[in-house]
Amino acid sequence: MRFFFCFWLILTIPAISLAQTGTISGKVTAIDTKGPLGKASVFLSNATFGTVTAEDGTFTLTGVKPGQYNLVVSILGYETYNQSILVGEKPQQLTIEMMPKPIQMREVVITTSANWKKNYALFIRNFIGTTENAKLCKVLNPHAVYLIYHKKTQTLEASTDEFLEVENRALGYKVRFLIKEFESSSLTSIIRYQGQVLFEELKGSEGQKKKWQEKRRQAYYGSSMHFFRALYQQKLQEEGFVIRQLQRRPNPKRLPEEILQKKYVQFNKSNNRDSVTYWNEKAQEPRYIENLIKQPLHEEDVLRRTEQPGLFALTFPDCLYVVYTKKSDPNNLDNVYRPLDLESNATSIITLYAQYALFDLNGVVISPQSTLYEGDWANDKLAELLPVDYAP
Fold it and tell me: What is the spatial distance between Cα 162 and Cα 176, in angstroms, rounded to a whole number?
């Protein structure tokens, strides 16, 4: 059975990188009492710039590369504050007022310690991953994540009221993720999440730092970030990418996933081996009837410029088949459709949920819920995530 994953990381990130740097400073107060808020987290989402406010509510971010950012302020008991900000050479002074968060009752879920551990293990697999990098990731505050599993729909939901802190000893980052929404479905095999994230460099020896730099390079090359940067620079071929059109239509012979799952569970419980085998074979039917157009596409076939500088649109019919020729996948671990006469390289598939997907100069899709990734990019989870100010 093939699996399909979707990552909707809704983050507004820097749009321009120049040689100069800027400064952002300001004061954080409560909107009702007008009093200062100390120890509030202030950061630029999906980058490595962040700090906490002093007791008088003041903060300063220095050395920020000019560009468009999403400034985030977070403190327990208040609504998360978001503001788009354009950083230039001139220092910016901000006054930020935080809105108290109303007390909301969560859905009451009766669960056991065993159920929590099972749900948490599923969350870790789908959020952090199962790669070699994932094995070197450690969650520092696991109980910060709120989990609920809906048995009827086989869907796991997760969220956090505070930052989930993950130490990534593979890439050398401490990742602080405020999860607004996370959902993984066993029926559709789709994972989606959104939130705010801050990267912090881990301390290490010079030898360790060299290993981290190499691991970051490995995570970057062939990634979606690498692809989108190469696309707007019109360097796809030079950077090792080949794109093609993949035509798809639903396979009329394949039964709905809900029926396949229900029948499997039913006969597995009754220990009816013959029926289990039968329904397993039914589940092997491909979801789609697919046809790959062998003639490669060019950048101008899928890339459109927008009226806003530094913002681009990706658009194409059917699905976009992306092959990274500098990374091999002889065993088709990406688990995607691949004709026998096609090269055995890392392959990803992009499906658009809208007419187009917007992305910026950092190579990050910024239009929410617009893309679905399958294959190689779907395997990249938090363990392979890099900040947008990363460059190899």
Answer: 9
